[in-house]
Amino acid sequence: METDEEAEILITGDSRGYLKMWDISSYCNGDDVKERRESFVRRTLSKDNQDNVGCFTDGRFTIPTFEPLGQPPPLIWSLRGHTKAVTSIVYIEDKGLIGSGSTDCSVRLWSMNGRYLGTFGQKQPWKIQFPIKEKEIPVLC
């Protein structure tokens, strides 16, 4: 998972090889968060819930609970970038590039709009250090 500096976009990868870019510029940062905080409920620990994690408030042990958000943020694009799980994502903001690594033993480069730019791969897994440094990015013609 990776975001831009302003936390307006979120780039994710999943276990099926998909990369997704989400618009989070107005997600979980305004009235929706305030409403969720106001509706936050605490329930008291009962004998059948002894394994739950909670906290002490007013001398009583309570377990915080909440309802998950109903809608994900708006999806900008989604693509199957790898044949196996995505394990690493890096966003090079000033170049408008996205790098992704996978258990399919490949590292791929993408444009900001999801266009495939190239694959760096071999049969043996690489030991790649993220984030990728600018000087390590190949020059694209």
UniProtKB/TrEMBL annotation:
Keyword Cytoplasm listed: no
Domain of life: Eukaryota
Coiled coil feature spans: none
UniProt-listed InterPro entries: WD-EF-hand_domain, WD40/YVTN_repeat-like_dom_sf, WD40_repeat_dom_sf, WD40_rpt
WD repeats: 79-113
PANTHER family in alphabetical order: EF-HAND CALCIUM BINDING DOMAIN 8, WD40 REPEAT DOMAIN 95
Protein known as: WD repeat-containing protein on Y chromosome
Organism listed in the record: Ciona savignyi (Pacific transparent sea squirt)
